[in-house]
């Protein structure tokens, strides 16, 4: 389905806002442009609702509806029957336990993690009960952050230092609270975080995925100075394909193993600014469809190499890693955890262990991130051929910088 009816909205909103709610009027239109989001159909909804016995209590709601993408190729990539459930569990379970843990420890406002948008309702099927499998009728209703002065960054330009610092500090706390739940409330952790991290189905066979490796290598051949790294890149691609299909080949390590976003790039976060200001003061994370129980440094490295403006990562990488560590340990300490296992050196060791597994992920993601806006396909037109067609000059520039830096650091 690609739209929601009045009855759909009422069924989704009533569990949160009350059974007497009636949608008096609403409008719906596409929210995102091609290339902004392939995992969902995104609609901007403006609704006027009334409540109360006399129907005089009016409220205007600015919402975002997330619906499943068209069937076919995108269903094979994103596995909506499972990934929709994972995202709903993040909003309904993980978010609440993060808040509860922080409230119990009286975390002050300036340290309080609040990165989840408000969820107004969700369903996996037309049934009123949220199940363990979603179908084409699945939907999630979220607050429209744009009306609260939140804005997306520019995927091609990347984020400046202030935005990157805010994202990194909040990412560290996002990871740390999961680790804290694991330490302090293991049963709650199992019932919330691990439930959200249930494995999704592999949409493609190993042979199908390996068949795409030569296509990327042909692109890399066209980048001056990168042809000498083709063997490194082929090994990195084969490593990621094998470990994605069999996660036991690169399991998460304790004590850092945690809830990871797994798709933490510029379009999956929105920043809020003070009135008439350009300095971000808050950030919200988006799209929890493919969260995993994995190493937190995979999110950190993926973000730094896909979403930062020119020069920001290269000039500040060590400082940003230290900023991550400071926020990670500060959050753990604030909720009562022993931070002695989480030394700065142990974090660097964790990065050296898991950064190589992000190499192919980063390289493939740079293709749509750097794509010229006029060349980005619509949802219905996405397939492997369109993914590899017409790599932009910006992609070649960023890919070269990434490849050379990964080789220098011993990660490729």
UniProtKB/TrEMBL annotation:
<dbReference type="Pfam" id="PF02958">
    <property type="entry name" value="EcKL"/>
</dbReference>
<dbReference type="InterPro" id="IPR004119">
    <property type="entry name" value="EcKL"/>
</dbReference>
<feature type="domain" description="CHK kinase-like">
    <location>
        <begin position="140"/>
        <end position="334"/>
    </location>
</feature>
<dbReference type="InterPro" id="IPR015897">
    <property type="entry name" value="CHK_kinase-like"/>
</dbReference>
<dbReference type="InterPro" id="IPR011009">
    <property type="entry name" value="Kinase-like_dom_sf"/>
</dbReference>
<protein>
    <recommendedName>
        <fullName>CHK kinase-like domain-containing protein</fullName>
    </recommendedName>
</protein>
């Amino acid at each position: 389905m690609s739209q929601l009816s009045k009855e759909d909205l009422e069924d989704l909103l009533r569990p949160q806002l009350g059974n007497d709610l009636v949608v008096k009027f609403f409008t719906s239109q596409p929210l995102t442009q091609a290339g902004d989001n392939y995992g969902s159909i995104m609609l901007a909804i403006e609704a006027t609702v009334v409540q109360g016995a006399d129907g005089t209590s009016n409220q205007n709601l600015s919402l975002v509806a997330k619906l499943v993408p068209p069937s076919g190729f995108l269903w094979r990539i994103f596995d909506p029957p499972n990934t929709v459930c994972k995202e709903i569990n993040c909003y309904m379970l993980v978010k609440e336990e993060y808040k509860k843990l922080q409230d119990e420890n009286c975390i002050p406002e300036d340290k309080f993690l609040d990165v989840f948008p408000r969820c107004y309702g969700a369903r996996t099927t037309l049934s009123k009960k949220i199940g363990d499998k979603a179908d084409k009728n699945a939907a999630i209703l979220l607050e429209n952050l744009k009306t609260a002065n939140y804005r997306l960054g520019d995927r091609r330009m990347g984020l400046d230092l202030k935005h990157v610092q805010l994202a990194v500090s909040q990412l560290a706390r996002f990871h740390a609270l999961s680790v804290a739940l694991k330490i302090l409330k293991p049963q709650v952790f199992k019932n919330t975080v691990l439930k959200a991290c249930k494995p999704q189905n592999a949409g493609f066979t190993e042979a199908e995925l390996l068949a795409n490796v030569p296509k990327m290598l042909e692109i890399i051949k066209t980048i001056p100075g990168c042809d000498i790294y083709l063997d490194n890149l082929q090994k990195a691609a084969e490593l990621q394909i094998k470990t994605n299909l069999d996660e036991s080949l690169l399991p998460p390590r304790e004590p850092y193993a945690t809830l990871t976003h797994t798709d933490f790039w510029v379009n999956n976060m929105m920043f809020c600014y003070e009135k008439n200001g350009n300095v971000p003061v808050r950030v919200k994370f988006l799209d929890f469809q493919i969260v995993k129980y994995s190493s937190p440094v995979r999110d950190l490295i993926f973000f730094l190499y896909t979403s930062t403006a020119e020069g920001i990562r290269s000039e500040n990488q060590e400082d940003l890693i230290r900023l991550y560590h400071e926020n990670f340990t500060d959050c753990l300490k604030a909720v009562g955890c022993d931070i002695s296992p989480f030394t700065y050196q142990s974090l660097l060791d964790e990065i050296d262990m898991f950064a190589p597994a992000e190499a192919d992920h980063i390289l493939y993601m740079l293709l749509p991130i750097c794509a010229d806006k006029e060349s980005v396909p619509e949802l219905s037109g996405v397939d492997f051929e369109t993914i590899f067609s017409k790599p932009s000059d910006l992609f070649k520039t960023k890919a070269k910088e990434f490849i050379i830096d990964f080789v220098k650091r011993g990660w490729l």
